[in-house]
Amino acid sequence: MKAQSTKAALVQQVVSFTRRCFDKGYFNTFRGEISIKSEGYFIVNRPEIPRFDIAEQDVSTFDIYTGEILENGIRFPVNVHRVIYERRSDIDCVFYAPLASLPFLSSEAGEIQIAFTEETSVMLKNIKRIPYQKSNSLSLAETVRDACVDTDIIIIDNLGVVVLGPSPAIAYYKLELLDAVAKLNVFHRGGVLPKLKFIRTK
């Protein structure tokens, strides 16, 4: 009974944060996923959900080791989520978002200088950028697996961003901060420290 109540609570968190991401414009009707890990499995919403219409039946449960679907029967690729949980035992939540403001960041490797607090600098440190690959493909998953070793934020060129966190609340907070940095970068040129460095992977 306790396991069932825990899983139900995780499903509600996925539904709640998905609605919040739609409301903020972080997700669109073509892409946007949130997964939360538990003991031996993770729960994730299906992509391509009509705006604000997400419900419990749109959330599926997958085996964390094999990627096989365990509950709900809605099958979709979850390669990126699974490899992150495989590689990072300290991560319990992954946001995979198109984030419309990302084009405001330079497409080239470099530094963004924005006047932010020290806390923001810590939360967004060591942002990595990787080349475009098809969404949720095996090749993208392998690239993300390598990139996530020492970062919680991975920007995928012309696709979106993957944000990792020890909880949904912290991962969502990082997504909010990144969105703010992207938008403020339009107005700030040559700002002050802290510097948010992009590291392009090979």
UniProtKB/TrEMBL annotation:
Keyword Metal-binding part of the UniProt annotation: yes
Upper lineage: Bacteria, Pseudomonadati, Spirochaetota, Spirochaetia, Spirochaetales
GO cellular component assignments: cytosol
Listed GO MF terms: aldehyde-lyase activity; metal ion binding
GO biological process: pentose catabolic process
Pfam families: Aldolase_II (PF00596)
Alphabetical UniProt keywords: Lyase, Metal-binding
SMART domains named in the record: Aldolase_II
Record-annotated Class II aldolase/adducin N-terminal domain positions: 12-186
Originating organism: Candidatus Ornithospirochaeta avicola
Protein name, UniProt field: Class II aldolase/adducin family protein
Domain of life per record: Bacteria
Keyword Lyase tagged: yes
